[in-house]
């Protein structure tokens, strides 16, 4: 590949989450980032680009397939604009899929605790620090995974989006569970409030279920009287949704 072709690719993917060209071959270049472990090979095919995932989370290719057609794990981009869209999505997924969020959390916690007096380590203050950083990390991962839009409505206004746990933070046994991007959904504030209190949930196909304890008039006012469902649902969501539906049913059984 010529210097001009390498420069063309580098220019095309500037600021798309893969800021380093780590190697060049006769057929293409390998792109990587200091922010995640994914590596992508991009080759020129006439005026098009062929893209292949070399390293990264095992779920990365299957998640990319939700939005970009692939042939034998290779994605074809007809132009630089499409290439940039694919790389941005790949970078977002690479930063959100397990266990990148956990690694980011551990690094942030270690950095924060290093600045604090030894006397508060192991105390309630440390617990609060870990929880605050964990919630921030989880939200960032959810925004990356769902493309900064509500998992149900597609609303893309950050101020009203909430990272909703299916299995609550306190109920999780490990940080890996708490920070698993599949343990919850990015929801608009009204849906988050209902989901958090187990007044709505989702079935195994991603369809919204609404508690009988919510009146018909409130259902209509909340906009829940129309068919709503998750924009997509991964198999990895299943165990967490099973937990949430069980709590949804338990909450319904206790309703007056």
UniProtKB/TrEMBL annotation:
Domain HNH nuclease, by residue range, is: 150-203
Keywords attached to this Swiss-Prot or TrEMBL record, sorted alphabetically, are: Endonuclease, Hydrolase, Nuclease
Single Gene Ontology MF annotation: endonuclease activity
Species: Thiohalocapsa marina
Q: Which domain of life is it from?
A: Bacteria
Pfam families, alphabetically? HNH_2
Q: What is the official name of this protein in its record? A: HNH endonuclease
